[in-house]
Design a protein that fits this description.
The protein is mostly helical. The protein has helices at about 5-10, 15-35, 40-50, 50-55, 55-70, 75-80, 80-100, 105-120, 125-135, 135-170, 175, 180-190, 205-225, 235-260, 270-300, 305-330, 335-355, 365-375, 380-390, 400-440, 440-450, 455-490. InterPro entries: EmrB-like, MFS, MFS_dom, MFS_trans_sf.
């Protein structure tokens, strides 16, 4: 009996099934937390006495912390064992979820979201690693299918669950609901997964590389998050942060290219197929996430929608993606992945252009149509990209390539959130100024005064209408720029050569 066969025999079929469900559930919980707070930002901002712009730090802090921790996953698993690290990561995630729910200030909430991200980052790849470890080769496709479904289902359910909880309970419960799931996963992992623990070894860690990674990403993200409140480069603090981020990034690249055991293996970028694939992924995913960020905020702050309705509208895309995923999975390997990816990105770009013509008088179903239709393209973008990127590197580089791909995707999410909200705010101010300069309000004021309004009331009504229209125009600008980014990503894919031979995607996460 081989070592691999002996691992499978340590668990009965029933234990294997239960363990697989628990691992899929843990992944679902972590992915859910990427989007569950999106529709709750206006509720949280109002409760904590902060602006909606500041409220988005709740999204970006989690994503950045998760991205930073992903490159550490391999070292942590080798050093302490994958089962032990999975259990401790789940415990940490549960504890920080409680602290997030108990937070009474933005500072505490952002700090606890960073803790959540640091603990949640390794859970995704480690849950996948454990699934591959407990299931024999003939059952792995089914197990990974279940895991992939939770990855798609999480973003779909996040806005709906977050919106319902915020409207009917309290925003604190979007974090508290993680606790029973975390407890269940910890208890089940301790009972079921200990027999499949991995061997440990004292492996070196690139401490300087880790420090530089945290330093430059931290400076960059803080600059992006606070820049819009500090007049950007008119503020010396923003200038200093930009310089530190640039110096840190340059030092990070030089160090990682010369380090024997780099925390991020940048040498993988020598493969043009991988480079073009991950840049298409980062641009495409960032442009797609722009809608997930801006739509709930616009609907709740300007259009009078509840968090629940905003969540349902936002989730339409992921619902359609779930329906199309099995078709995309069957086509992968039979059709050139570049055709599938570029076709999906082009489709997403067209749907984004459609949304660039929304107005303040648009109804729910007119917004739901492009949201739902664009979702059919998502699996044809995400699934073949793994084949393209991992098929472009050597087999011994697959794990590093998969980790770097996940890192860039998560960073794209965080950076896109900051840029989109900056662009939306700037667009709103410019549009309002232009409308105010050409507006002839005298007739309207006279009509409103004839209806019994005072001069000040009439002015306020007109001002509110201008604000509403300016916000709608700014949303359209965001979608137009997102569409251009998606079309650019469509072209970049074709820099990659066609993958040849079978591709091992087991290391992807």
């Amino acid at each position: 009996m081989s070592d691999e066969d002996s691992i499978f025999s340590r668990l009965t079929p029933r234990q294997r099934t239960l363990a697989g469900l628990v691992l899929a559930l843990s992944n679902f919980m972590v992915v859910l937390d990427l989007t569950i707070a999106n529709v709750s930002v206006p509720h949280i901002a109002g409760n904590l006495g902060i602006t909606p712009d500041q409220g988005t730090w709740i999204i970006t802090s989690y994503a950045v912390a998760e991205a930073i921790c992903v490159p550490l996953t391999g070292w942590l698993a080798q050093r302490f064992g994958v089962v032990k690290m999975f259990i401790w990561a789940m415990i940490g995630f549960g504890i920080f979820s409680v602290l997030c729910g108990l937070s009474m200030s933005l500072t505490m909430l952002v700090a606890c979201r960073i803790g959540q991200g640091l603990c949640g980052g390794p859970i995704m790849p480690m849950s996948q690693t454990l699934l591959l470890r407990i299931f024999p080769p003939d059952q792995r496709a089914r197990a990974m299918g279940l895991w992939a479904m939770t990855t798609l289902l999480g973003p779909a359910m996040g806005p709906i669950i977050g919106g319902y909880i915020s409207d009917n309970w309290s925003w604190h419960w979007i974090f508290f609901i993680n606790v029973p799931i975390a407890i269940l996963c910890v208890v089940a992992a301790m009972a079921l997964l200990r027999p499949v623990e991995t061997d440990t070894a004292r492996v070196p860690i690139d401490r300087m590389g880790l420090f530089l990674l945290v330093f430059w990403i931290g400076c960059l993200q803080i600059m992006l998050d606070i820049g819009r409140d500090h007049d950007w480069f008119g503020d010396p603090l923003i200038v200093i942060l930009a310089i530190l981020a640039a110096i840190g990034f340059a030092a990070f690249i030089i160090w990682e290219l010369t380090e024997e055991h780099p925390i991020v293996d940048l040498r993988i970028f020598r493969h043009i197929g991988f480079t073009s694939g991950v840049f298409s992924l980062a641009l495409g995913f960032g442009a797609y996430f722009a809608g997930i960020v801006v739509i709930p905020q616009w609907l709740q702050t300007s259009m009078g929608y509840t968090a629940t309705d905003a969540g349902i509208l936002t989730a339409m895309t992921a619902v359609a993606a779930l329906m199309a995923a099995p078709i995309a999975a069957r086509m992968t390997g039979r059709v050139d992945p570049r055709i599938m990816i570029s076709g999906a990105l082009f489709w997403l770009g067209l749907m984004t252009l459609w949304r660039a013509h929304w107005t303040s008088s648009i109804d729910f179903w007119s917004m739901a149509a492009p949201q739902f239709i664009q979702g059919f393209a998502m699996p044809f973008f995400m699934i073949p990209l793994t084949t393209l990127t991992l098929g472009s590197v050597r087999p011994d580089e697959t794990a590093s390539a998969a980790g770097l791909q996940n890192f860039l995707r998560t960073m794209a999410l965080a950076i896109a959130t900051s840029l989109v909200l900056t662009g939306w705010g700037n667009g709103q101010r410019v549009s309002r100024s232009e409308m105010a300069g050409t507006l002839q309000p005298a007739d309207t004021q006279a009509q409103l005064s004839a209806m019994g309004m005072s001069f000040e009331q009439a002015r306020q009504v007109i001002s509110n209408l201008v604000d509403q229209e300016a916000l709608a125009i700014a949303v359209d600008h965001v979608f137009f720029l997102s569409a251009l980014v998606l079309f650019l990503a469509t072209a970049i894919v074709w820099l990659a050569p066609k993958p040849t031979g079978p591709v091992d995607t087991s290391a992807a996460h």
